[in-house]
Amino acid sequence: MTTPARQATGQPGQLGKPGIYTQREIIRLDEMLSSHPQERWSEKVVQDGRNRAAMICSPAGTPGDPHMHPDFNEWWVILNDEVEYAIGEYEPFTAKFGSIVIAPCGYRHDIRPIKGDRCLRMVVGFQHSNHDLKGLEPARQVPLDDLAPPNRIHTSLDYMLSRHGTEEAWSEQVLFNQRNRANMIHQLPGQGNRPHWHPDMDEWWVVFKGELEWQVGKDAPFRAKRGDIVFVEAGRAHSIKTVGDESSIRLAVTTPDVIHHFLDDPAAPRPPRD
Ligand SMILES: [Fe+2]
Ligand SMILES: [Fe+2]
Fold this sequence. Notes:
Elements: E1 26-27, H1 29-34, E2 41-47, E3 52-58, E4 67-68, E5 74-87, E6 93-95, E7 100-103, E8 109-125, E9 133-134, E10 154-155, H2 157-164, E11 170-176, E12 181-187, E13 196-197, E14 203-209, E15 211-216, E16 222-225, E17 229-232, E18 238-243, E19 248-254, E20 261-262
Antiparallel strand pairs: 1-17, 2-3, 3-8, 4-9, 5-6, 5-7, 5-8, 7-10, 11-12, 12-19, 13-20, 14-17, 14-19, 15-16, 15-18
The protein binds fe (ii) ion (2 copies).
């Protein structure tokens, strides 16, 4: 199956500049890793009008650069190897594939790759934020809170699997703030959702388990698996189903007040784009 490359722009490169993967309809994790032979790299992958998400890859032992942001909640999805985080005054913890980590606005964060040659994290940030508040040290360290989702400092995939299992379909909000809602969705083989579209919001997903098929507009369907990222622009109809023998888990990232127009609702407006 070929990789469609809608709106591919620029070259791989620095944070803040478009990379070759920016807003591709699908970004395959294995392709992205193999396309960057260098030890350390970063590349912007999603720009949806409210977030700027970039991949940051570096080997274990790369020093941290503790800082904080006064104006937004920064968050990450870990996609390869292991990364140690210290957030605010919380004790450091290890994040690995499928972990979602949140540094609330004003919380210092110190991020250190600790295991593997290609510790890969996707940072979801805010384009114009202040990154100059550096060098802060925590006054003390306290254990992580064990609160239910959403908005845990660390939501690991293992935690969500122990909470819900894989016998039934489930969905739970793991992040909710004024800019984003992120739902983790588990579906059994063959299960899917109703075709729909969003009038004013690009939607994107990170696949954590299994394999899923996206049908977008009138395009040929395509499949994504563990570690892949899918991006669908506002105004395009889409539906998703779990394929293969294994159940699937995906993280769906939307605005907090996302509007759905369903194609099987005769009263709903039609999508403006194919
Ligand atoms: Fe940051
Ligand atoms: Fe959607």
